[in-house]
């Protein structure tokens, strides 16, 4: 196992080689694994979680849990997110105050996805926006706390870099709003349907589908459907299903 200075030096060396967001995204998981972290997420809010209509989540949490979490807007009452919005200090979830116990059902639900205890590092922007790195483990992982303690400096550095590279996507994701029709078009095209097939399914013209796709492409500053789908997926903008 690497301890403090050793792991920090390794992370620093890796970061020096990173020149873009894509490069950071491709290696952050390996660097966190080296710190003893198996489950993680970076979360961003441009406004208070209680007022947010969506949340940006990047990481390797189970996609089914992320879908439920976003759909049910659990972030509005998640004790971990609420605490992250209030402080700039890292904290173990076990240290959350008793007033959050009423919301423990979120932890009960997350239990099925291997998210039972964790450690969070908030990073606040000027104003109300903030990002936070959350690393999680199962309750029976007896060495989780010691691994976090041994790698605190490296984890702090990684959280700063995550915020640097990912917060812009977070701001765009939470501020960009697709209409219901746009989301429906995006969903069907992302499922491999042609514009013509999507038009038949939706009961509209192919020309209208193209109009909505072009409108969304402009919102995300991309030039074609392939780029639109890829960027929308990375920003969690594609609905899990449509009515």
Automatic annotation (TrEMBL):
The keyword Ribonucleoprotein does not apply. Pfam families: Autoind_bind, GerE. It comes from the Bacteria. The keyword Cell cycle does not apply. It comes from Billgrantia endophytica. GO terms for molecular function: DNA binding. Keywords: DNA-binding, Transcription, Transcription regulation. Residues 171-236 form the HTH luxR-type domain. This is HTH luxR-type domain-containing protein. GO terms for biological process: regulation of DNA-templated transcription. Transmembrane segments: none annotated. InterPro entries: Sig_transdc_resp-reg_C-effctor (IPR016032), TF_LuxR_autoind-bd_dom (IPR005143), TF_LuxR_autoind-bd_dom_sf (IPR036693), Tscrpt_reg_LuxR_C (IPR000792), WH-like_DNA-bd_sf (IPR036388). Coiled coil: none annotated. Gene3D superfamilies: Transcription factor LuxR-like, autoinducer-binding domain, Winged helix-like DNA-binding domain superfamily/Winged helix DNA-binding domain.
